[in-house]
Amino acid sequence: MSKNSKLVRGYEVVIGLENHVQLSTESKIFSGSSTAFGAAPNTQASAVDLALPGTLPVLNRGAVERAIRFGLSVGAKVAPLSIFARKNYFYPDLPKGYQISQYEIPVVQGGQIEFFVGDEKKLVKLTRAHLEEDAGKSLHEDYHGQSGIDLNRAGTPLLEIVSEPEMRSGAEAVEYARTLHALVMWLGICDGNMQEGSFRCDVNVSVRKPGEPFGTRREIKNLNSFRYMIDAVNYEVNWQIDRIEDGLEIQQATVLYNPDTGETRAMRTKEDAADYRYFPDPDLPPLMISADWVERVRGEMPELPAVMAARFQEVDGLPAYDATMMTQSLGIARFYEAARDRSGQPKLVANWMMGEVFRRTKNTLENQEKHGDTALRSLDAHFENLDRLLSQDKSALTADKLARIDQRTKQITLAQTIYSAVLPDQLGHLVSRIADGTISNNSAKQVFEALWSGEGADVDAIIAAKDLQQSNDTGELERILDEVLAANAKSVEEFRAGKEKAFNALVGQAMKATKGKANPAAVNELLKKKLGG
Amino acid sequence: MALTHDDVSRIAKLARLELSTDEQAALLPQLNGFFSIVEQMSAVDTSGVDPLYTPLSAVQEVALRLRDDRVTETDQRELNQRSAPAVEDGLFLVPKVIE
Amino acid sequence: MSAPLHHLGVAELGRALRAKQVSSTELTQHLLARVAGAKDLGAFLHVDPDLALSRAAAADTRLAAGEAGALIGVPLAHKDIFVTRDMPTTAGSKMLAGYLSPFDATVVERLNAAGTISLGKLNCDEFAMGSANENSAFFPALNPWDRTRVPGGSSGGSAVAVAAGLVPATTGTDTGGSIRQPASFSGITGIKPTYGVCSRYGMIAFASSLDQAGVFARSAEDCALLLSAMSGFDERDATSVQQPPQDFAAQMLAVRDGATAAQPLKGLRIGLPKEFFPAALSADVNGAVRAGLAELEKLGATLVDVSLPRTELAIPVYYIIAPAEASSNLSRFDGVKFGHRAKSYGNLIDMYEKTRAEGFGAEVKRRIMIGSYVLSHGYYDAYYLQAQKLRRMIADDFQQAFQHCDLIAGPVAPTVAWKQGEGADDPVKAYLADIFTLPGSLAGLPGMSVPVGLGDGGMPVGLQLLGNYFKEGTLLHAAHALQQATDWHRQHPAGV
């Protein structure tokens, strides 16, 4: 058993996830209403969305296209024929009294997600992903003892992605969710905004003694932040174990996690929620997806993170870890590639990005944002924007990606008012200056600081202004070394007597004398020559 | 198979219909009368037959027609809420929703 | 114009209007007066004289400008199952009393654009559930041939309005026979096209996989004119058939190969399913239908025997599928977004249950109960799925039959219109009377009812003609030939 699935109090934890991913279409899944977030109540609820008598649904091609994209990205089967069904139940935020979803035959079948938990690679199979419509919202602030219903969100396209119950710890569940979140953003099918509910996690948790059949599961609904997921799962696991230890049954239930109390509590379940009376929606004939269509979508897809990471390992010679870090998001990957091309120094660029660039960017962002997803989103948005500034041929960008970039520019401009930043070209330039020996790593940090703070923009200009160039003038260096040797006769004696440490002392003195501008390699070489002679 | 009063009240709950005891009493024999004519249907062997969910698929492949992803609707809230039983601040009002 | 205005059909009126023999305003005034005088028939749920007259005036301007549209200025009325933006729409239910739709049904929109003048909204069974128009939440419609009898349903008001000479044509909807049966009971011509030919957008849904809009008029020719204007592809209905606009009048007139003036139907094979002529079929209906078939033979058609072995099964199959779809379609009537809400209630669920208990009538509740039951956990396969499989077998039987014939003919209903109040006690008995119209509905085939004389009590009898998919032209051609050679369709109730 892997170290990520340690038993908890002698029980094995079994976790499966259901993620509701809001697809980034302009219009709703069955109507021409806008999906834009935050409009005045019911101003984006058309006759169709309100289920006014006589209205009928017509499916949005954009939603299907995004489902296909996802299916291809996880190696799933894109069903040539899938069926929309009605899920019947009464709820005020459900205008028709049924939700149009997919039941027996979903559009995406199977597939798998790969991710790292620490340094251990984990693979989780997907059961399915199906298209459905979102419900509206019940606003609970008091209207004389009543609730207010806003149906703007009703009919927003969702892709519900269901995993097999193959996770064995909260840590695995979080990494799965993060990976899925990064993937749907990478694919440009979802804006990933968890606060606005664009990416929702329902976590099914059960426990069992090793080898026993699955226990009864409870579903933790609407975890809208990764940071709470582990806490929620841990609380739920211990709660279930407590009950079992007390000889009590686990009732299947839907629970909500309260971050303030750190506890989960069962939702008041809708009566007879069990009997949804699913049947194929007679308003919507079968959805047919031709092989041509699938191939067209495949052709428009960005290179997938895993594929790109493999390329960075093979072609650029990056270690696996670095390659993964450079493919956290499409924006980061493009940034890396631009800086790499400018410098021809893949490993050095990766080091600087994982070091200075990520540290500074993440710090600034995490100070600004509460929720776990935002750092990655804004980071991606930030890099994406820089990438766009760089991109010579904008027509090369798919409409999809442009839309994505545009709806992110808000965050970007916000991000940029928070901090200025280093462009890929600047980092590439800086790295090339380290590589060609013009400046030392330490000096490079000063240049980076200047670039970051906006103090300067051109790498060479900053080097000159700060007088950071490593001196490679041997004549000058020899003169200095002679002085150093003369001034440190004792060390010279010790070295000749075979004390290696004395040599380092001399190098130190020499660097000191050159105010750190000397190229350490050159100093070593010359010293050896002189002492040898 | 005959329905019982429990079936009737269970289905009524499912369908969100409040039935008076008289209505319930009247419905039970009617439903059972109906299901008696349904029995002949159950006898037929339909193995290997595809259900006919939409008529034309009896003679041709019927594929769902899709619309382009364009916003075509404008705000018609006032018109759409003309016949709403209870509205405030553009919201539909209902008895408190408890989760 | 020898006959009185209200005896004229759509085609004749169109010609008269374009010839300026009568103005749309005069015509509309004349018919509004008749509507007002015939309130007791219960054909209309809503009449709007001012709106009608203003539209008539507009039509007269178009006519004066020389516009030649066949329907400009022609008055009609719509079944109250079609939503309209300028008149209330109730679907014959308390649930929607006074409901104002923000949009017009596609069928209404197209007939308005063609220049027709809507006098109002027509009575029908609540949510189109019924076959006698006695399930209207407001009042029943009476059969003008005998006011103690029903006009048929669910489009009862639509049939009565034409039969009583209140308007030359009306729209209706047919889910299990709701156009053919009232047309037969009221002695007029009605057509239900192939499923998908008319848009369902704006037609309040009863059973989505069966509902289809159609026409009531005095002749096949009039039906063709209206159907041409109201049918055609609509992007707002995903089940709307993508085909170019059809000129059904032209299709109706197209001369068959080998046809002669005396035998316009030469070579047309009309299949008679033996299951449509059971022993139980009442003699008067059988007699009238046979007379009609004899006329068709005279016109050159040949009658062949065919079989639709699952005709009887159509009853349970239909009464599983239609209520199942209805139970879901009617869930939106919950007192939240529109329509009736109970005056007093406790919590949310109580609001739902009281609202729906008050808003729906007995038959609607019955079908919601049946539908919810057959879809509920553990019963789906035995009922709904089994019914949909049988539905395909029924549709396949038709394709078998159409290998031997071009049209299928038989009675519309086992009897003439029955007395008010009959069958109210036993709903299942009423279901059984739909036996001849249900198979064609389940298959989604086009069908007509054409008058072929009078039966018991001097009540009209209709001949049902069914065509293969998209064969409306053939149907209309046969019906038109019959009506050129006979005048059953010109008979009208005493005093009309």
From TrEMBL, chain A:
Residue ranges annotated for the Asn/Gln amidotransferase domain, each copy included: 334-531
Source organism of the structure: Roseateles aquatilis
Entry keyword annotation includes Transcription regulation: no
Gene: gatB
The family this protein is said to belong to: Belongs to the GatB/GatE family. GatB subfamily.
Reaction(s) catalysed by this chain's protein: L-glutamyl-tRNA(Gln) + L-glutamine + ATP + H2O = L-glutaminyl-tRNA(Gln) + L-glutamate + ADP + phosphate + H(+); L-aspartyl-tRNA(Asn) + L-glutamine + ATP + H2O = L-asparaginyl-tRNA(Asn) + L-glutamate + ADP + phosphate + 2 H(+)
GO BP of this protein: glutaminyl-tRNAGln biosynthesis via transamidation; translation
UniProt entry keywords in alphabetical sequence: ATP-binding, Ligase, Nucleotide-binding, Protein biosynthesis, Transferase
UniProt-recorded name of the protein: Aspartyl/glutamyl-tRNA(Asn/Gln) amidotransferase subunit B
Record's subunit section: Heterotrimer of A, B and C subunits.
Gene3D superfamilies: 1.10.10.410, GatB domain, N-terminal subdomain
Domain of life (superkingdom): Bacteria
Function text: Allows the formation of correctly charged Asn-tRNA(Asn) or Gln-tRNA(Gln) through the transamidation of misacylated Asp-tRNA(Asn) or Glu-tRNA(Gln) in organisms which lack either or both of asparaginyl-tRNA or glutaminyl-tRNA synthetases. The reaction takes place in the presence of glutamine and ATP through an activated phospho-Asp-tRNA(Asn) or phospho-Glu-tRNA(Gln).
HAMAP family, alphabetized: GatB
InterPro entries: Asn/Gln-tRNA_amidoTrfase_suB/E, Asn/Gln-tRNA_Trfase_suB/E_cat, Asn/Gln_amidotransferase, Asn/Gln_tRNA_amidoTrase-B-like, GatB, GatB_C_1, GatB_Yqey_C_2, Gln-tRNA_amidoTrfase_suB_CS
GO molecular function terms listed in the Swiss-Prot or TrEMBL record: asparaginyl-tRNA synthase (glutamine-hydrolyzing) activity; ATP binding; glutaminyl-tRNA synthase (glutamine-hydrolyzing) activity; transferase activity
EC number in record: 6.3.5.-
Coiled-coil features, chain-numbered ranges: none
UniProtKB/TrEMBL annotation, chain B:
Enzyme class (EC, first level): ligase
GO molecular function, one term: glutaminyl-tRNA synthase (glutamine-hydrolyzing) activity
Record EC number: 6.3.5.-
Domain of life according to the entry: Bacteria
Keywords: ATP-binding, Ligase, Nucleotide-binding, Protein biosynthesis, Transferase
BP GO annotations: glutaminyl-tRNAGln biosynthesis via transamidation; regulation of translational fidelity; translation
Enzymatic reactions: L-glutamyl-tRNA(Gln) + L-glutamine + ATP + H2O = L-glutaminyl-tRNA(Gln) + L-glutamate + ADP + phosphate + H(+); L-aspartyl-tRNA(Asn) + L-glutamine + ATP + H2O = L-asparaginyl-tRNA(Asn) + L-glutamate + ADP + phosphate + 2 H(+)
Stored SUPFAM superfamilies: Glu-tRNAGln amidotransferase C subunit
Pfam families the record matches: GatC
NCBIfam families attached to this UniProt entry: gatC
Functional summary from the UniProt entry: Allows the formation of correctly charged Asn-tRNA(Asn) or Gln-tRNA(Gln) through the transamidation of misacylated Asp-tRNA(Asn) or Glu-tRNA(Gln) in organisms which lack either or both of asparaginyl-tRNA or glutaminyl-tRNA synthetases. The reaction takes place in the presence of glutamine and ATP through an activated phospho-Asp-tRNA(Asn) or phospho-Glu-tRNA(Gln).
PANTHER family in alphabetical order: GLUTAMYL-TRNA(GLN) AMIDOTRANSFERASE SUBUNIT C, MITOCHONDRIAL (PTHR15004:SF0)
Description of how the protein assembles with itself and partners: Heterotrimer of A, B and C subunits.
Protein family membership: Belongs to the GatC family.
This protein's name: Aspartyl/glutamyl-tRNA(Asn/Gln) amidotransferase subunit C
TrEMBL record, chain C:
UniProt KW Ligase keyword: yes
Molecular function terms, GO-annotated: ATP binding; glutaminyl-tRNA synthase (glutamine-hydrolyzing) activity; transferase activity
GO cellular component, one term: glutamyl-tRNA(Gln) amidotransferase complex
EC number: 6.3.5.7
Catalytic activity: L-glutamyl-tRNA(Gln) + L-glutamine + ATP + H2O = L-glutaminyl-tRNA(Gln) + L-glutamate + ADP + phosphate + H(+)
GO biological process: translation
UniProtKB keywords: ATP-binding, Ligase, Nucleotide-binding, Protein biosynthesis, Transferase
SUPFAM superfamilies, alphabetized: Amidase signature (AS) enzymes
Domain Amidase as annotated: residue spans: 26-476
InterPro entries: Amidase, Amidase_CS, Amidase_dom, AS_sf, GatA
Pfam families: Amidase (PF01425)
Active site: K79, S154, S178
Function according to Swiss-Prot or TrEMBL: Allows the formation of correctly charged Gln-tRNA(Gln) through the transamidation of misacylated Glu-tRNA(Gln) in organisms which lack glutaminyl-tRNA synthetase. The reaction takes place in the presence of glutamine and ATP through an activated gamma-phospho-Glu-tRNA(Gln).
PANTHER family: GLUTAMYL-TRNA(GLN) AMIDOTRANSFERASE SUBUNIT A, TRANSAMIDASE
Quaternary state and interactors: Heterotrimer of A, B and C subunits.
Family of this protein: Belongs to the amidase family. GatA subfamily.
Name of the protein this chain belongs to: Glutamyl-tRNA(Gln) amidotransferase subunit A
Species per Swiss-Prot/TrEMBL record: Roseateles aquatilis
